[in-house]
Records
---
Amino acid sequence: MKGIYIHIPFCEQKCFYCDFNSFPSDDYTKKKYMEHLLKEIELNKQMLFNFEGFRNQKKVLDDEKIESIFIGGGTPSIIDEAYITELMNVLKEAFGEYFADDIEITMESNPGTLTYEKLLAYKKAGINRLSIGLQSCVDDELSSLGRIHNYDDFEKNYFLARKAGFDNINIDLMFAIPGQTLDSLNYSLDKVIGLNPEHISAYSLIIEDKTPFGMMYEKGDLKEIDEEIYVKMYRNVVDKLYKNGYRQYEISNYAKKGKMCRHNLMYWRGGDYMAIGLGSSGLINEVRYSNAQSLDKYFSMIDEGKLPIDYRENLSKEDIINEKIILSLRTNMGLDAKELKDVTEFDILLDRKNELENLSSNGYIEIDGDNIRLTQRGREISNSIYVELMVDFDKGSS
Ligand SMILES: C[S@@+](CC[C@H](N)C(=O)[O-])C[C@H]1O[C@@H](n2cnc3c(N)ncnc32)[C@H](O)[C@@H]1O
Ligand code: SF4
């Protein structure tokens, strides 16, 4: 197994665009949740690898070291730092013998929730990579997104994190925010680049159903940014970050040399990872699974001594091929056609010869021996490229 994902679902308030499984909560529920999370880790240790729902009962942990742990959310930095210390202790107790020597342990955080004491406690607990959700350096844009902080709050927290010894920091940015201009995006990019973080994630805003933004959009009170401006913004992000030493290694992710996020890489390469916490999803031995989405169900399953898994699916050969195509093409390393053929027997170079030739002659992909990569133009229409290359055995498309 390559990684562990741990979900902390609490946030101070819900941002207007966010459909992650996260919500505000009281201290009692947070305490109860953390107690259950620790029990879930124990249950995973005892049960996961004998669990009848997982086929190919090979000993997952003996095969590979755990290279990455990602504590995400929600806002893990909202809870008392003692919970994070305890979480890390229990994890080390349960799985420490399988940790790679240079394991990367990331925690997500929200500006305005960090203090120097918290940051020192995280560092001491073994967290060696901090991800801070900033989104924008323009205060009006932050309040239009429903964020709880302004730019200054972020900057203070960023410098405190450096002072506490964090030498691997990611900053999340967003573009295509309603009302954002190319100039204001550039202002945010320049400010963030000036801080010299090791990694920047720049996501284009997705207007999700059932969020306040989704509802405003349905009523016609919120407009998506114009397609032409969107493309300009995206190209601008890629170019500016490139010129400043950040290599794009996936559609939304940029890193300095050697600082790509291990959790991301593992996920895009289809590596096995264990899911812990409310609603989180994992992949082990070609079985994709998710935990209960509601707190009541999550608590009661753990109280009954069961893993809180309420969905599992044995991936079909078709699923495995399609996931490999999509996830690899998202990255700049691209798709290794030979590896795909070795693992799945699907020869994309032969079976999709015409599609690949068309995409290549139109400048959307580059083919170099067994390696297939999206070009910058290709990234702008990535979804339609995936559809062209994916297989559907029912329809006889392979
Ligand atoms: C789960 S959040 C964790 C960080 C922390 N809770 C925060 O918001 O500061 C991870 C990131 O996902 C991105 N994100 C969430 N919803 C999004 C959406 N609808 N469109 C684009 N990006 C989104 C934001 O950039 C956010 O920082
Ligand atoms: S703080 Fe992060 S997880 Fe929470 S609602 Fe906002 S974007 Fe979502």
---
Amino acid sequence: MPEMTSDIIIKDLVSMLGIKAVLHHDDDTAPFLSDWHSRYHGKAYAVALPETTDQVSALLAYADKHNIIVVPQGGNTGFMGGATPDASGHTILLSLRRMNKIRQIDKQNMSMTVEAGCILQTLQDSADDAGLYFPLNLAAKGSCTIGGNLGTNAGGLNVVRYGTTRQLTLGLEVVLMGGEVIELLSGLRKDNTGYDLKNLFIGSEGTLGVITAATMRLFPKPVARSTAFAEVRDVSAAVELLHRVQAASGGMVEAFELIPADILHVLFEYFPKIPQPLATIGAMNVLMEIGSTNPASNQVDGNGNTPIRQIMEDVLETAFEDGLVIDATIASSDAQRDALWDVRETAPESHKLAGKVARSDVALPQSAIADFYAEMVAGIKAIDPKIRICGYGHLGDGNLHFNLVQAAGGDPDFDAKTPKLYDLLYGNIAKYNGSISAEHGIGQLKRDQLAKVKSPAILNTMRSIKSALDPKNLMNPGKII
Ligand SMILES: Cc1cc2nc3c(=O)[nH]c(=O)nc-3n(C[C@H](O)[C@H](O)[C@H](O)COP(=O)(O)OP(=O)(O)OC[C@H]3O[C@@H](n4cnc5c(N)ncnc54)[C@H](O)[C@@H]3O)c2cc1C
């Protein structure tokens, strides 16, 4: 057997996949070899873009035979460096982007079967065209893929009502290192036939196999919505408001996002054209939305109100009287709704522009969020009172992105403070029985932290699963464990 040089590998990939499916010039491969935050930079023999499951299978058989690492990648929007190879260069970067077909929409089964490289927005649009609804929704929806969403078990804005990607998945098609295809593409809602392999691959960040297709649940389309932005007294008032809206609407809360003042200050610094939701910037705010699939919820009464808006108004009015809410606005048009959502959805981009940020993605029991938040604020102020405390996000499912943005104008000492900030954060997470990763995954960024917070029994079980499915450690090594 000839020595496997880069040239031989590229030639073999071209004969396996075709010339257009293999990128190896630096200009072409560069966007695939660093992550969204430009935090990690890797190397690869080539970027391979197969179009079919058979091609993925052939590629993984080849990689296994020649001991070549494979790193799967979707839209490359992940935050944990999970889709970036290491610097060794002994890697094929496997991009699923060209596997982007909708295979089937089964309206009666309320499901759709799609290839892994389909962009999330395409799933939403295709469901909408069929008169149905696919609820997974992230600010990266125009570029992330369903394969990446499955790889990370993505959450996003609507988890409070519909669950994470895991809960939206009925079936998967997966290719293992070595080329074996596991066909789990069931549209079944119940199936108790042995170990639940599907759920093993969801959230495995490309370390156990390559997801090539999935069957996802669809839902009736919400036809009426009410969206409000409210300044609240504090974090505990926000949690109380969430429970009140859930109760008043019969569980119709589609999204419930916490937005502290510093999120708005950073946002308007970099995106001054986004309209400010309220006349003044309050210390703590929420963006919330309820949705109904019943057209009667949208019928305008004599006062120009709809039943769904009335629910929102009633909750806000009582909460105002009880001192939970200080000020609020309810969107009266789609344009106003979009403007409110721009505030939330542009926040990650504004943090990218703001320079140095200590980022996190934590989960807590809802009962602990207010105390956790208060302890974090006190601890951060003791480290540096000028740090902008952007602890925001999916309060509806107890998930906060506790981002700490360097002081306005820059801070040359921020890097030195970062370990103290993370010690504070992880100390409080442990104290309140939280999780170090709610929805972004582990990747390479949190690998060392995972090893600190999980017991040896859990870590050993994870390692046993990994070595059973990938004994040579060729599937995305260096991620998770
Ligand atoms: C502006 C912005 C907002 C975001 N908001 C959210 C949010 O609200 N909630 C949230 O959860 N995330 C959010 N993210 C993070 C990111 O979008 C998600 O992690 C998303 O699921 C990644 O999808 P991707 O296709 O880009 O995957 P990639 O980044 O390409 O890959 C992510 C991981 O999945 C693996 N992978 C990719 N494809 C496959 C496959 N076919 N088979 C097996 N493994 C695979 C990769 O190896 C890697 O480990 C946001 C990102 C941005 C940029």
